[in-house]
Amino acid sequence: MYTKFPLLTRTCLLRHLLGLIIVGLAGAGMAAPAEKPMAELVISTNKGSELQLEVRQIPMAEVLKAITAKTQVPIHFSVLPDGLVTATCVGSTLKQVLECLLERRADLVVRYPHIPDKSESKGQLAEAWVLGSRQDGTACSLTGNTLPEQSQQVSDTTAKPNPSDTLLKMAKSNNAAGRAEAIGALLAAGTKDDPKIQEMLEDAVHDEDANVRAQALSTLTHWSNDTESISVALSEAIHDGSADVRLMAVDGITDDVDLLQQAVNDSDEVVRTTAITKLESLMKQAAQ
């Protein structure tokens, strides 16, 4: 049944097979090692390249978390592009680096500090939102420097839709976190006195989710010029079942002593303390 080979022939065959195995193992050992996942942001003093981001085979969420940890700038997001990111981005501002990283696969909304601490902080962000991500399942790969800030802004205004419209759509999302983030972003990107935004915020302060209500109240009190609408919202929110919403109400009060006096007796210590501090400040201003 079996073919018999002379001893010498069998030895040669074994050596030949052993040689093939060794060559195969050597070939496997010579294969290029898999790229190690990493995300590193280097901050330097080199003009024009103050921020240098190097990303290799890592999810977008992890990249944004790493950037936040390094810069202490909150970056809000709910849904991000799928796939692993590989990118090299260099720029003078964080906004430039983020735009390079996202590569137009999502909208970026940023808010700058109202009063920068130093003149050198020009261009520094207070917080950012990543919105409208495209779920195409492809990996992002980009290498190179970002375009100058001014050039990017011109391109954005001609190529992108009104950010307010995008945020309004997201504010009606079934996802509570997405609604809250979109409403928060409207504070920076929302068109002033837009009746559609005003109506949406007045509805959102009654949202079933406490985080959405708190964010809507914050945006309404800081964005809207409708004092009557703000007053009604604050009067309701000061009795909300969520301490976060009540705290946001106290934060939004500018000169309503009656509401602050109600908040002084709140069941939550943080709300009480904040109300007392604000009430004392108003009393001092009135005495001057």
UniProtKB/TrEMBL annotation:
SUPFAM superfamilies to which the protein is assigned, alphabetical: ARM repeat
Protein name: HEAT repeat domain-containing protein
